[in-house]
Write a structure and sequence with these properties.
124 residues, mainly beta, four-stranded antiparallel sheet, 11 strands, 0% helix, 46% strand
């Protein structure tokens, strides 16, 4: 049974918006140190945003001001609100844990747990 399940991807035009969700079904965990990374074909993994142990958000410079990460602790859902989308945001987006800082996704080391991903395609 998948423990992190993403949803909400799709195709939009540049300037559009999408909201991604990640439902965390792990037992005995809270919603902290959970985050998003993305990967486009042929490209390295890029950390996008994460919430740390205190649920404080952190963002990649490339998405700062356009994306907002948030949590519903009661439902154990992690959200990524994406606005002012650009074609360069096109990628498969993954939820991952533990991911207290978005840069942890860029170490090249395997992440302990990831979801199956949801595709985001932004056309110009």
């Amino acid at each position: 049974q998948a423990q992190l399940v993403e949803s909400g991807g799709g195709s939009v035009q540049a300037g559009g918006s999408l909201i991604l969700s990640c439902t965390d079904s792990r037992a005995n965990t809270d919603i902290s140190c959970l985050g998003w990374f993305r990967q486009a074909p042929g490209m390295e993994r890029e950390g996008v945003a994460a919430v740390d142990a205190a649920l404080k958000p952190n963002y990649a410079d490339s998405v700062k001001g356009r994306f907002t990460i948030s949590t519903d602790s009661a439902k154990k859902i992690l959200y990524l609100q994406m606005s002012s989308l650009k074609p360069e945001d096109t990628a498969m987006y993954y939820c991952a844990a533990p991911l207290c800082h978005h840069l942890q996704a860029e170490t090249g080391l395997p992440l302990e747990l990831t979801g199956q991903g949801t595709q985001v395609t932004v056309s110009s």
